[in-house]
Amino acid sequence: MLASRYMALWLILLLTIGLGFMAGNHLISWWWAFIPLLLCALGVRDVLQKRHAVLRNYPLIGHFRFIFESIRPELRQYFFEGENDGAPFTRKKRSLVYQRAKSEIDSRPFGTELDVKENGYEWIGHSMSPTKLASHDFRVVVGADRAQPYSMSVFNVSAMSFGSLSANAIRALNQGAKKGNFAHDTGEGSISAYHREFGGDLVWQIASGYFGCRHADGSFDEQKFVEQAKSPQVKMIEVKLSQGAKPGHGGVLPSAKITPEISATRGIPMGIDCISPAVHSSFSTPLGLLQFIEKLRTLSGGKPVGMKLCIGHPWEFFGIAKAMLETGIVPDFITVDGAEGGTGAAPLEFTDHVGMPLQEGLLMTHNTLVGIGLRDRVKIGASGKIITAFDVARTLALGADWCNSARGFMFALGCIQSQSCHTDRCPTGVATQNPVRARALVVPDKAERVFRFHQSTLHALQELVQAAGLPHTSALHPHHIVRRINDHEVQLLSEMLKYLEPGDLLSGNYRYQVYEKYWPMARAESFHPVL
Questions:
Q1: Is residue 101 part of a domain?
Q2: What is the pLDDT of the chain when averaged over all its residues?
Q3: Within 10 Å of residue 15's Cβ, how many Cβ atoms?
Q4: Which of 397, 204, 183 minimizes the C-alpha distance to 306?
Q5: Same domain, 65 and 178
Q6: How far is the C-alpha of 158 from the C-alpha of 245, rounded, in Å?
């Protein structure tokens, strides 16, 4: 594969040698070898430079990508004028991340490119009396009444495992998180040496495979957990129940991507696919889940412990809420993953048609905690295609306390969405275990870009909060976001979405159909409903 990626350089090199031989024998002029020689020099420079991962992996031919990228707006103007290019919104966000990560100017002339008359268009209301905030370092305290609470940034790296990502990608993410003082979620692949190298804050995710804290049979190992959890670098522990990319489906790491390092990090054998079970073996009921959370909190020395899930059947989450009331055990946080999110590969049906989207999942989580009077004790994180400062502001307004981003930080690392993550042939060295391909990702350069992206996004968030006349991101509420619902009407999200009042579920004031129908069916002792 190395030969194929460097084919253009090899061919030019052979051509240069051939022409040089012919010129040396006076068969042609030396001028014939001049241009191939320049191309050879350019190819060598591509391999040695540290700014562009694509060029390090694809010398010479990688330049075509940048040429096409530079002329694309003009091509749209002259050949597709009047057409609404459908996917461009994702491409625009990716371009924005690149600009912010590289400290390039991200301002745009001639107004919005979005159709402000299109149904679903949203904006944040601004104030005639903007505020002036001293800092863009917005934070929320998780586990305030625990022995080791954590002051968390409102924008963090979402769960992506070592194994899915390369060692260099993990190192760059963690070094950027260390510099920017924000959290780096390990993903379910456990804590590798690359997570520890720069000392950035970690949220250790524990999924059904119990990687990094498992017995040989795959069950939970308390002693190994304690050894990892006592690290000062581990700030919080997150029990993963499901993920937006493939809720209800265990994670898969193909055997081709399992290196000796991954085997040691996860505690798994070499040579066979690593498949996470779809369910945990340590518990099977809502009560068992909360008891497991309390156990991890005790074993970790009082660090904040919570759960991550993509909401599925409403009665299952309601069962967890009832278990909180019955036991008095409350998770310190809940991370809600939207079904539209996820950077990992998954079957098409799971990607497109399984799980609750972020808006609905976040709203249900927030409402349920409000309804049982526990919202002030449980913080909520949210993830699912969150990239821009407006994405963050909108999500916080819906009810989240902080946001996580996976694809945003992948873009900052240089990901070009080639969608070859599962093939181990990532062209930018982000999602591969091939050491030659991973070499293309230069850690110091990409760590700086991760840091800049985080800082620039929070600075933009600060400007949005100031424009809305607010003192902090925690003051964002649904009435600050406006949505067009048809050609002649707009509504505040507070008018469109349904919110419970504190204690509603305790008093039987269900208000809305989802609670009227499913709250009575939910059970603390089982995920199965009362029929």
A1: no
A2: 88
A3: 17
A4: 204
A5: no
A6: 13
For the beta carbon of residue 89, count every other beta carbon within 10 angstroms: 11
pLDDT, one tens digit per residue, over 222-240 is 999 999 999 999 999 999 9
| pLDDT tens-digit readout, 472-526 | 999 999 999 999 999 899 999 999 999 999 999 999 999 999 999 999 999 999 9
Q: Name the token pair of 293.
A: 């959370």
Of the residues 85, 108, 127, the one at which a domain ends: 85
Question: Is 185 inside any structural domain?
Answer: yes
Q: Residue 338: which of 364, 360, 365, 318 has the closest Cα?
A: 360
On whether both 76 and 220 belong to a single domain, the answer is no
Q: Would you state the pLDDT for residue 236?
A: 98
Name the domain boundary from 47, 65, 85: 85
Domain that holds residue 67: 2-85
pTM of the model: 0.87
How many C-beta atoms surround the C-beta of residue 118 within 10 A?
A: 10
Q: What is the domain-level CATH number for residue 209? A: 3.20.20.70
What's the CA gap between 115 and 20, in Å, rounded?
A: 58
> What pLDDT is recorded for position 321?
98
Cβ–Cβ < 8 Å for 392, 457: yes
Question: Does one domain contain both 24 and 147?
Answer: no
The answer on 296 and 225 residing in a single domain is yes
Residue located via tokens 């700030």: 235
In a domain, 126, yes or no: no
Query: How many other C-beta atoms are found inside a 10 Å radius of the C-beta of residue 490?
Result: 13
Do 143 and 66 share a structural domain? no
Tokens, residue 244: 């937006």
C-beta of residue 154 within 8 angstroms of C-beta of residue 462 = no
Task: Please calculate the CA angle 70-444-192 and round it to the nearest 5 degrees.
Answer: 115
- The enclosing H or E element of 140 equals strand 139-142
Same domain flag for 77 and 151? no
- Based on the fold, state whether residues 284 and 421 are members of the same structural domain: yes
Backbone angles phi, psi at 70, to 5 degrees: -75, -30
Q: What are the DSSP E strand ranges found in 329-441?
A: 333-337, 379-383, 402-405
Whether 47 is in a domain gets the answer yes
Sole residue written with tokens 């009047």: 82
- Decide: 172 and 428 in contact? Cβ < 8 Å: no
> 163 or 524, which is more confident?
524
Query: Do 162 and 257 fall within a single domain?
Result: yes
Q: Which long-range contacts (CB under 8 A, 24 or more apart) does 325-330 make?
A: 325/372, 325/506, 325/524, 326/287, 326/524, 327/287, 327/290, 327/291, 327/524, 329/290, 329/291, 329/293, 329/294, 330/374, 330/377, 330/378
Q: Which two tokens stand for residue 347?
A: 């079957």
Overall domain count for the chain: 2
Strand segments, DSSP code E, in 241-288 are 252-253, 274-275
- At residue 313, the 3 state secondary structure works out as coil
Tens digit of each residue's pLDDT (9 = 90 or more) over 318-371: 999 999 999 999 999 999 999 887 666 666 677 677 889 999 999 999 999 999
What confidence score (pLDDT) does residue 78 get? 40
